[in-house]
Recover the amino acids of this structure.
């Protein structure tokens, strides 16, 4: 006969603490936005305290107890004038970031980025140019756009934001140009065209 101790059920407060710990790690650059989104979903779905511990086991106990993180310089500008810019992979987004595309194009992939302070405002200006923004599902995106002989569009499924999720404010102005926001489903990979198709499919299926 074996003596096994049943797993302790996780409380809502413990789930919130795990999400807060992941958010701190994202702010410090330890997790990307996409990684945070996945762990946040796992934390809210966790049944036991052991499940939560596995989610945060590789993260510092708390921001105050952790050693100061080596901060990468936050990026404040993406400028494309008669040219193109492509931001992807790990990069650190400043609290205010400006994207200017004049007779050019900009692609910004936020899935592997981290946000300074967990919240950022991105100002997009497209004049005879275009900008594509790729964000992971699960983060809180506040998108506002104005088009003059141009367009600003959102694509993909927008689930209700979770408490504690990072916030990305996007303000877009398109003059004879276009700004497109793509919410990329969790697990979607491939080139930009494949990510856009995945976002459109998620939008149709919602």
């Amino acid at each position: 006969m074996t003596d096994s101790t049943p797993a302790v059920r996780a409380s809502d407060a413990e789930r919130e603490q795990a999400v807060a710990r992941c958010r701190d790690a994202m702010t410090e650059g330890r997790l990307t936005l996409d990684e945070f989104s996945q762990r946040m979903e796992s934390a809210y779905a966790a049944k036991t305290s052991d499940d939560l511990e596995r989610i945060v086991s590789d993260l510092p106990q708390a921001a105050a107890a952790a050693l100061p993180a080596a901060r990468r310089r936050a990026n404040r500008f993406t400028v494309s004038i008669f040219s193109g810019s492509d931001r992807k992979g790990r990069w650190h987004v400043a609290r205010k970031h400006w994207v200017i595309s004049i007779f050019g194009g900009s692609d910004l992939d936020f899935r592997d980025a981290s946000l300074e302070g967990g919240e950022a405002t991105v100002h997009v200006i497209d004049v005879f140019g275009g900008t594509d923004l790729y964000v992971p599902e699960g983060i809180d995106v506040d998108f506002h756009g104005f088009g003059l002989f141009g367009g600003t569009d959102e694509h993909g499924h927008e689930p209700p934001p979770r408490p504690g999720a990072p916030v990305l404010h996007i303000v877009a102005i398109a003059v004879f140009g276009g700004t497109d926001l793509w919410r990329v489903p969790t697990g979607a990979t491939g080139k930009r065209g494949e990510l856009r198709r995945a976002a459109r499919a998620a939008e149709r299926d919602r």
